[in-house]
Protein backbone atom coordinates (compact mmCIF):
# COMPACT_ATOMS: atom_id res chain seq x y z
CA UNK A 1 0.00 0.00 0.00
CA UNK A 2 2.85 2.36 0.80
CA UNK A 3 4.46 1.90 -2.61
CA UNK A 4 1.18 2.76 -4.34
CA UNK A 5 1.03 6.07 -2.45
CA UNK A 6 4.55 6.99 -3.53
CA UNK A 7 3.82 5.90 -7.07
CA UNK A 8 0.80 8.22 -7.22
CA UNK A 9 2.88 11.05 -5.78
CA UNK A 10 5.62 10.52 -8.37
CA UNK A 11 3.09 10.41 -11.22
CA UNK A 12 1.56 13.63 -9.93
CA UNK A 13 4.97 15.30 -9.80
CA UNK A 14 5.84 14.17 -13.32
CA UNK A 15 2.56 15.50 -14.69
CA UNK A 16 3.07 18.80 -12.87
CA UNK A 17 6.57 19.17 -14.29
CA UNK A 18 5.27 18.40 -17.78
CA UNK A 19 2.55 20.99 -17.43
CA UNK A 20 5.08 23.57 -16.24
CA UNK A 21 7.25 22.99 -19.30
CA UNK A 22 4.23 23.27 -21.55
CA UNK A 23 3.17 26.46 -19.78
CA UNK A 24 6.64 27.99 -20.09
CA UNK A 25 6.80 27.18 -23.80
CA UNK A 26 3.35 28.70 -24.31
CA UNK A 27 4.42 31.87 -22.49
CA UNK A 28 7.55 32.12 -24.64
CA UNK A 29 5.45 31.76 -27.77
CA UNK A 30 3.04 34.47 -26.61
CA UNK A 31 5.96 36.78 -25.81
CA UNK A 32 7.41 36.28 -29.27
CA UNK A 33 4.04 37.03 -30.87
CA UNK A 34 3.66 40.18 -28.77
CA UNK A 35 7.16 41.26 -29.81
CA UNK A 36 6.35 40.72 -33.47
CA UNK A 37 3.14 42.73 -33.14
CA UNK A 38 5.02 45.58 -31.43
CA UNK A 39 7.55 45.53 -34.25
CA UNK A 40 4.79 45.70 -36.87
CA UNK A 41 3.29 48.71 -35.12
CA UNK A 42 6.69 50.42 -34.94
CA UNK A 43 7.32 49.78 -38.64
CA UNK A 44 3.91 51.16 -39.60
CA UNK A 45 4.36 54.21 -37.38
CA UNK A 46 7.78 55.00 -38.83
CA UNK A 47 6.52 54.55 -42.38
CA UNK A 48 3.50 56.77 -41.73
CA UNK A 49 5.78 59.48 -40.36
CA UNK A 50 7.95 59.13 -43.49
CA UNK A 51 4.80 59.56 -45.61
CA UNK A 52 5.08 56.15 -47.30
CA UNK A 53 2.16 54.89 -49.36
CA UNK A 54 -0.62 52.95 -47.68
CA UNK A 55 0.09 49.92 -49.89
CA UNK A 56 3.77 49.91 -48.89
CA UNK A 57 2.94 50.22 -45.20
CA UNK A 58 0.50 47.31 -45.42
CA UNK A 59 3.02 45.24 -47.37
CA UNK A 60 5.98 45.74 -45.04
CA UNK A 61 4.23 45.95 -41.69
CA UNK A 62 1.88 43.04 -42.47
CA UNK A 63 -0.92 44.93 -40.74
CA UNK A 64 -4.43 45.29 -42.08
CA UNK A 65 -5.52 48.43 -43.85
CA UNK A 66 -7.90 49.16 -40.98
CA UNK A 67 -5.11 48.89 -38.40
CA UNK A 68 -2.79 51.16 -40.41
CA UNK A 69 -5.60 53.70 -40.82
CA UNK A 70 -6.26 53.55 -37.08
CA UNK A 71 -2.59 54.23 -36.31
CA UNK A 72 -2.54 57.09 -38.82
CA UNK A 73 -5.63 58.60 -37.24
CA UNK A 74 -4.13 58.37 -33.75
CA UNK A 75 -1.03 60.17 -35.06
CA UNK A 76 -3.09 62.78 -36.88
CA UNK A 77 -1.66 61.72 -40.24
CA UNK A 78 -3.76 61.70 -43.39
CA UNK A 79 -3.24 58.60 -45.56
CA UNK A 80 -4.52 58.09 -49.09
Topology:
Elements: H1 2-49, H2 54-61, H3 65-75
Helix pairs in contact: 1-2, 1-3
Describe the structure.
The chain has 80 residues and is mainly α. The chain has one domain. Helices cover 84% and strands 0% of the residues. The protein is built from three helices and no strands. The protein has helices spanning 2-49, 54-61, 65-75. The termini are far apart. The model has no long low-confidence stretch (mean pLDDT 89).
Q: How would you concisely characterize the structure shown here?
A:
Helix 1 runs antiparallel to helix 2 and helix 1 packs across helix 3 (65-75).
- Rg computed from alpha carbons, rounded to a whole number of angstroms: 24 Å
Note the beta-strand portion.
under 5%
Q: What is the number of strand segments?
A: 0
Quaternary structure: single chain
Q: Indicate the mean pLDDT.
A: 89
**Distinct helical segment count:** 3
Distance between the termini: 76 Å
Helix proportion: over 70%
Helix/strand class = mainly alpha
Task: Note the main sheet.
Answer: none
Instruction: Please write the string of helix (H) and strand (E) elements.
Output: HHH
Shape: rod-shaped
| Total separate domains | 1
Q: Which stretches are low in confidence, meaning pLDDT under 50 for 5 or more residues running?
A: none
